[in-house]
Amino acid sequence: MKRILLLVMFLLAPCTAFVTGGVFVSSGLLSLAVAEEDETARLYRSMQLEGVVNWKAFRQAVEGYGKIRGRKRDVLTLIDFSKPSTEERLYVFDMKKRKMLFSSVVAHGKNSGGNYATSFSNECGSYKSSLGFYLTASTYQGKNGYSLILDGLEKGINDRARERAIVVHGAAYADPSVVAGGGRLGRSFGCPALPPKLSRSIIDAIKGGSVMYIYAEAPDYLAQSSILHEGGLM
Predict the structure, then answer these.
(1) Which of 46, 116, 118, 157 suits 215 as a labelling partner, its CA being 20 to 30 A distant?
(2) Which residues pair with 168 in a beta bridge?
(3) What is the pTM of this model?
(4) What is the C-alpha separation between 48 and 53, in angstroms, rounded?
(5) 3-class SS letters over 106-168
(6) What is the spatial distance between Cα 195 and Cα 55, in angstroms, rounded to a whole number?
(7) Residue 87 gets which letter from DSSP?
């Protein structure tokens, strides 16, 4: 009887606290976290991303997307550097319509690795990719053709993107046909370079204040991220 009474009290008092796994947790906060997790999982399933998009990368991308107040577009781009350059690893999602707009290969920085990007930097002249969250800015016509400026949002991780001229652009070395000759895509000076046939369409879909998240299996990034670490998302 006592156990039943305790259970009823718990169910009727969502803001009480209890111990789970040795940690004192607010049931209200736990319910909120579970609800948010369930919503992200529902979004993942509704977009039919199982077996296509890395769940962990998607979860982190959606978590950060929801925290970034400066965004002006309901569009999220995920670049998953846990995958090799030979596979599609850039995804563009329409978050309002709950659908994937694009899936493409994308090149990483020449000093970040061969087929896989495993080393990252925020330093000028490193020729490495940078992880984390970005907001897309305006477009321009440059030496690599139609290009999109990126603003890194995380200090010490990617906030020198403009200074380093890290932009989205098309490049012949990022075309899938290159893989047959060298076993991987060509590499950039740190920019997420796209196949020329897709670059303009993707840039137009994400320009003007949408969120981009560049993911890798990198515990050091998670420990430093001002966007993800704050929420304890690991």
Answers:
(1) 46
(2) 148
(3) 0.83
(4) 9
(5) CECECCCCCCCCCCCCCCCCCCCCCCEEEEEEEEEEECCEEEEEEEECCCCCCCCCCCCCCEE
(6) 25
(7) S
| Domains parsed from the chain with CATH numbers | 27-231 (2.40.440.10)
In total, the chain counts a number of residues equal to: 234
Determine the Cα–Cα distance for residues 126 and 133; give it in Å rounded to an integer.
Answer: 19
Measured between alpha carbons, how far is 233 from 5 in angstroms, rounded to an integer? 34
Residue-by-residue DSSP string for 195-234: -HHHHHHHHHHHTTT-EEEEE-S-HHHHHH-TTTGGGT--
**With DSSP H G I counted as helix, E B as strand and the rest as coil, what are the percentages for the chain, rounded to 5?**
30, 25, 45
Q: What does the DSSP 8-state code read for residue 53?
A: S
Q: Which two tokens stand for residue 35?
A: 């609800």
pLDDT per residue of the chain (234 residues) written in tens, 0 to 9? 444 444 444 444 444 443 433 334 344 444 444 555 689 999 999 999 999 999 999 999 999 999 998 999 999 999 999 999 999 999 999 999 999 999 999 999 999 999 999 999 999 999 999 999 999 999 999 999 999 999 999 999 999 999 999 999 999 999 999 999 889 999 999 999 999 999 999 999 999 999 999 999 999 999 999 999 754 333
Tokens of 161: 């993107």
- In terms of Cα–Cα distance, which of 138, 152, 33, 136 is closest to 76? 136
Residue matched to tokens 């477009």: 139
